[in-house]
Amino acid sequence: MQTILIVVAAVLGSIVLGLLFSWVDRLVTARIQWRKGPPVYQPLADIVKLLGKETVVSESASLWPFLLAPVLGFAGVCAAAAILWAVAINPDASFVGDLIVVIYFLTFPSLVLILGASASGNPYGAVGAGREMKLVIGYELPFVLAMVPAIVAAGRALSRPGFELAGSFKLSAILQAQQNGAVAGSLAGFLALLCAMAVMQAKLGVVPFDQPEAETELTGGVILEYSGPALAMIKLMRAMLLFVLPLFIITVFWGGVSLRGWGLLATPLKVVVLLVVVVLMRNTNPRLRIEQAMKFFWFIVTPVAVIASVLSAYA
Amino acid sequence: MSVLDKVKLWGLKKSPWVYHVNTGACNNCDIEVLELLTPRFDVERLGVLLACSPRHADALLVTGICTRQARPRLQEIYRQTAKPCLVVCLGACACTAGIFHDAWHFAGPVDEVIREVDPDAKIIYIPGCPPKPEAMIAGIAKALQDL
Lengths: 315, 147
What we know:
- The complex is a heterodimer.
- By secondary structure, chain A is mostly helical.
- Chain A has one domain.
- Chain A is built from eleven helices and no strands.
- In chain A, helix 1 packs across helix 3, helix 2 packs across helix 9 and helix 4 runs antiparallel to helix 5.
- Chain A is globular and about 65 Å long.
- The relative contact order of chain A is 0.16.
- Chain B is an alpha/beta fold.
- Chain B is 39% helix and 16% strand.
- Chain B has a five-stranded parallel β-sheet, with helices on both faces.
- In chain B, helix 3 links the parallel strand 3 and strand 4.
- In chain B, helix 3 packs across helix 5.
- Chain B starts with a helix and ends with a helix.
- At the A-B interface, helix 2 of A face helix 1 of B.
């Protein structure tokens, strides 16, 4: 019963906060361009409108993968949100390897967009799917490597004399390790946090890593063929990611979520800092070409993540 | 009208995404459309966004007379658009063909071309050569009120 309650709270909470965050994103973007920006209910109105519209499926699309893809992606983000919320509310809910499970669920949106775009039967969708695939190949390795400092710190926290642990994949152990200072407090952890933030930008699919969508060249790319409720699912998935990814990064690198005492002030501040970085990066950068993005992840972010994971052994 | 319909209508009124179709305009109306997105007019505060594809659109913004080449394409774009959608005839050419009325390449007024595909299409007219951005905002606002 408690599990069901936590899942419902996690999904609803992530939807509400995600929609709010995507409004903040649009508002800050508008203000940077000296515009007034949309009202606070705008993302909700977009979703409601899309839910009321017709879903068009082209003749060349293969129906089931095309329509199933947004649902799967939405479900994946919901599952990641549920695990993160459950650990934030009650660390005992953590299970062995839940860090790995969350990483897997967080790749769902990209994989599902590749699936949906390939099934859409649209040449722009195919190009977008190819780009999304290249991006995933680019950023997944540094993302996993960036987790190493947190994993090692968690192992150290669980180790006792006579019971040495090299690392732990439990989120609760990572949280426990950060009670006397965040993982990002050490040099290794800080470098890893920077890598994870670069990857977050790509996972959200915003400028400078929006090549799969690229509305000026691919006119929407991976989401081009979607309409009505299916598009609403994708928009909702993106909006939830805008909250779930910062939540994940805070849990792993930045001391986790706490709503007691100073945490009531500090937790929203951490989320806002991550969100502001995403929005500012998005508004001050041009879109990279796809090979530039891959070079960035392979030759800059990956070496930094490797250095961070090596350094974490000497903390 | 049921509650569900009211909610749907609210969404449609608050978030009209626009797809821009040029069926043979001189580019004057198109430049005026771009002004809508600038800080001076900023239609995003009314929820209006330029959509990248007719699949995402709630309104087709048609500029220019419908030429022979554009006619089948305009009908195809209307078929591809997710319904319900509006068609906005923007400028004198799209409304009446204007000074090109007797030209050889003119293939029928935009509203008739659209009605061939869908007799019940909701079509609104914003005249002017080109219409001022204020006139476009007023026209779309009036159309949304009447939905």
